[in-house]
Amino acid sequence: MTFHVNKGNNHNLIITFDYTPERVKKIKQVTNRWNPLEKCWEIPATKQSINRFLSVMQDEEVIIDPTVDLVITGSKLVSIKEMVWLKELTEKTDRALKLKGYSSLTIGAYKGHTIRFFEFIKKQPDQVANEDIEEYLLYILDKKKVSFSYVNQAISAIKFVYKHVIKSNNIYNIIVSIPKKFEKLPDILSNDEIIRLFRSDECQASGDLNPNLFCRSEG
Questions:
Q1: If residue 76 lies in a helix (H) or strand (E), which one and from where to where?
Q2: Residue 178 domain flag
Q3: What is the CATH number of the domain that holds 42?
Q4: Residues 33-78: tens digit of each pLDDT
Q5: Is the Cβ–Cβ distance between 93 and 110 less than 8 Å?
Q6: Helix axes 148-160, 130-142, angle to 10 degrees
Q7: Which residues of the chain have pLDDT under 50?
Q8: What is the predicted pLDDT for the residue at 219?
């Protein structure tokens, strides 16, 4: 579900994403420059082209490589210098996870959660409040439709960064109450069951009353 933006050659940016007909239709609103050798799409690294790309992809997740001179944050285009601290934080997170023996899959997942969280709230780590975390979790639940296991992993990643990388208990001690799964609603009675419920007096009179107050149908 993600469009990745990386630095290309000759002042171009390369766009990659998992194929679906809908995504191809979207990218064609921006560019027709398909590179069959590299299997990617290309757009000029100009403000006009990037703004066009952002406009078309406003409902999509866009991740830009930190080595690119420009970085996408929401609907704005800002200098990579303004986000250089995030690249440094990601590198420190990678180091801390490796030193603690985390698997490569977990390392990749935690780094991804860290980048997405800070790109969403657009704040320095020491400016983050409880409300920012809650807002992000609601966003990925409501808008991204992610699973609760994904949310719990995001929480674990944020806590890890603050405890072991930033070395601050300001966020680490936050306990976010997220249910592990949806509570199942009780079954709704059908029309026939409601009719049978109101006929329970007849059942009681005949001695045929089940624990659910439904009259048993006669074979």
A1: strand 76-79
A2: no
A3: 3.40.1170
A4: 999 988 899 998 887 888 788 888 877 878 777 666 554 444 444 4
A5: yes
A6: 150
A7: 71-81, 175, 209, 211, 213-219
A8: 44
